[in-house]
Design a protein that fits this description.
alpha/beta; Alpha/beta knot; 7-stranded parallel sheet; 16% strand; methyltransferase; cytoplasm; transferase
């Protein structure tokens, strides 16, 4: 990785040709393989990946690289130090928070290009304070009560593609 990437940002510092289709935020992710897989999905749809520190891994982690394979170099991403930085940098956009504690399903949301999809860590989820603050924008995927949680990468992929489906797909 380059010096700019090890400091926490990737191609986001390079001139961009267009706005990201979506913004995918991982709030304090723990597992590099999930982050790598989510990064690959972001490349596939033209979304930007945001990582909120602290992270449960190093950004040069071999598992992160392996899961992202050769796509990581094409990913627009940034790592930031706080939730307040996300709110400031993405102000004016619609935030959707994914949590198993939500009342509404993702199918009940009306997604638009430029929306922000926020996912919690694999071990802790999203803090209650964030869920409370954005209660009307909390969503969940339906699952049988015997299932405690779904894999973060699987959940993010499902929600990203539902959003893209709703607003007409990719212009590729």
């Amino acid at each position: 990785m380059s010096a700019s990437e090890s400091s926490g940002s990737g191609p986001a510092n390079a001139p961009q040709h267009r706005e990201p289709l979506l913004h995918v935020v991982l709030y304090q992710p723990d597992i590099p393989q999930n982050t790598g897989n989510i990064g690959r999905s972001c490349v596939a749809v033209g979304a930007k990946l945001w990582l909120v520190r602290p992270l449960g891994f190093q950004l040069d982690d071999r598992y992160l690289k392996r899961a992202g394979m050769d796509y990581w170099q094409h990913l627009e991403w940034e790592a930031v130090d706080s939730w307040s930085e996300i709110e400031s940098r993405l102000a004016g956009r619609t935030f959707w928070l994914l949590t198993k504690f939500a009342e509404r399903h993702v199918w009940d949301a009306s997604f638009s290009p430029g929306d922000v999809l926020v996912f919690g860590s694999e071990t802790r989820g999203l803090p209650e304070s964030l869920r409370r603050e954005h209660q009307s924008r909390c969503l969940k995927l339906p699952m049988h009560e015997a299932v405690r949680s779904l894999n973060l990468a699987s959940t993010a992929n499902t929600v990203v593609y539902e959003a893209v489906r709703q607003f007409g797909g990719l212009n590729t």
